[in-house]
């Protein structure tokens, strides 16, 4: 009887989101030895809030995003933990 069983390839777990569409589970956070070096700040600008990733040591702005981009990023199926403060290009 076991001879009649077909092989099934492994599948990626997909869970439904609030809109009924499938999304992949979140990716594990990127391990970065300098993670404590960066800081996320949110500043109010003339057209809304601005999200900035700053280097604590140099004060350099690593990444800057308007709120609209952050909202789009959040609702993207490719969004994963750490995307907002990603410091590598």
Question: Can you put this structure into words, describing what you see?
Answer:
The chain is mostly beta strands and 89 residues long. The protein is 10% helix and 29% strand. The strands form two sheets. The protein has a three-stranded antiparallel sheet. A two-stranded antiparallel sheet has the order 1-2. A hairpin with a 5-residue loop joins strand 1 and strand 2 (22-23). The chain is elongated, with a radius of gyration of 20 Å. The model has no long low-confidence stretch (mean pLDDT 70).
Descriptive labels:
elongated; three-stranded antiparallel beta sheet; 89 residues; mainly beta; 1 helix; single chain; two-stranded antiparallel sheet
Concise description?
This protein has one helix spanning 67-75; strands at residues 15-16, 22-23, 38-45, 48-55, 61-66.
Write the layout of secondary structure elements.
Blueprint: E1 15-16, E2 22-23, E3 38-45, E4 48-55, E5 61-66, H1 67-75
Antiparallel strand pairs: 1-2, 3-4, 4-5
- Helices and strands, in N-to-C order? EEEEEH
Low-pLDDT windows of residues: none
Please estimate the helix content: 10-25%
The overall strand count is 5
Distance between the termini: 54 Å
**How would you describe the shape?**
elongated
| Class from helix and strand fractions | mainly beta
Described by strand count, sense and barrel closure, the largest sheet is:
3 strands, antiparallel
Secondary structure tally, helices: 1
What is the gyration radius calculated from CA atoms? Answer: 20 Å
* Proportion in β-strands: 25-35%
Instruction: Output mean pLDDT.
Output: 70
The strand line-up of the biggest sheet is 3-4-5
